[in-house]
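User: quick one - fold this with zinc ion bound?
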Amino acid sequence: MVLPTRNRRRMTLLLLHLLTWQEVETYLQASKGIIVPIGSTEQHGPNGLIGTDAICAEVIAKGVGDAASALVGPTINVGNAQHHLAFAGTITLRPATLIAVIDDYVSSLARHGFERFFFINGHGGNISTVGAAFQELYAGASLRRGGSAPLRLKLKNWWETPGVHRLSKEAFGSREGSHATPSEVSVTQWAYPEAIKRAAMGEANGRVRDFCDAEDYRRLFPDGRIASDPSLATPEHGAKFVETAVHDIAEDYRKFLMA
Ligand SMILES: [Zn+2]
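Assistant: Sure. Structure tokens for the protein plus zinc ion:
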């Protein structure tokens, strides 16, 4: 099945913010699992949207929720993006703030009986901080010992499934790069065709060493991209990436609930 452009209305509305509290109680009788999309608000090169990482995480999370009959929580759409702050429009949370946000988000839902939290991530810069947040939550549970229901947390990066890897290799090869990639820009073009941007761009700089702060990043990568050619992005590619990511990640979610 290839998802047609803008089919979101046909999806089941298992989105937390579109339910009533009674519906959430009913859901909890059938499942203790919830999907949490997490992204970032940061520059994505000359034709990429500032919201790329949040948009990718959200549309794929909605697809997975639909495929697996799972509830999807509100998107955490600002992440750890300090290294992009030399480009206009970027917003960051400090790592300590993001850890606190995730802690409160999960703890609120755990209070109602949710036990399994499956984060679908759109931003590489969130990985270590989300890992630290999970350790904080587990530490809290361990220190309370026996006080609360078991908590299970998992982070899934949407671009790291076998199917998505294969697609990106076939479609873009080495021009995928690692930031402002044609894959992620394609997903946003599928999700928001009215916001497709065109921009002239030459070859992007590659990564010669790890970047540090925002000024350092901009010196190394003046137009924001890292080794990518997002001029190759199309909404048609985006439809395939969403379909493949949803298929692979829905399978992971089902396993996560059983394990
Ligand atoms: Zn991105």
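One thing worth noting: The beta strands are 33-38, 71-72, 116-121, 152-157.
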